[in-house]
Amino acid sequence: MSDEGQRRPMAGTGRRVVSAALAALAVAGVYTAAGPLGSASASPSARCHGSGCTGKDPEAQGCAADARTDQTIQLDAQLYAYLRFSPACDAAWVKTVSWSPEKPIQGTVYGERWGRGGQVIVECTQSTGYLAGGTQWSRMCGGDPMHEITAR
């Protein structure tokens, strides 16, 4: 898992930044030629897929290996929630981060779809507990529904 929300010092001179950007473009070209990023073959460690991931731990199932952040909620400067999604596993979860030992955060991920008449049907709900001063993640919601998160 990545360290979203963590502040890092900026890179040195502009020359190094340009060199790093050119190197990244070269690597991206190699990956583009090799095939689409985020495909199931990009994460051979995935142990579940789609609805088979629902209720399972994303780390234990290998789904965090190719995960991306699709949504971020910042409650304040020290509290963050991220909607994480694994293309290889076709599953989502919420990851919460509290940089303060005094401020707890709780997150929930929802797997939703549109029903008849424009109704939203919730197919899956997974939540974290409240945690201050740390990082945690929920169990996954797998499959094709839209995924949303809330935090408090």
TrEMBL record:
The lineage of its organism: Bacteria, Bacillati, Actinomycetota, Actinomycetes, Pseudonocardiales. InterPro entries: DUF2690. It comes from Amycolatopsis halotolerans. Pfam families: DUF2690 (PF10901). This is DUF2690 domain-containing protein.
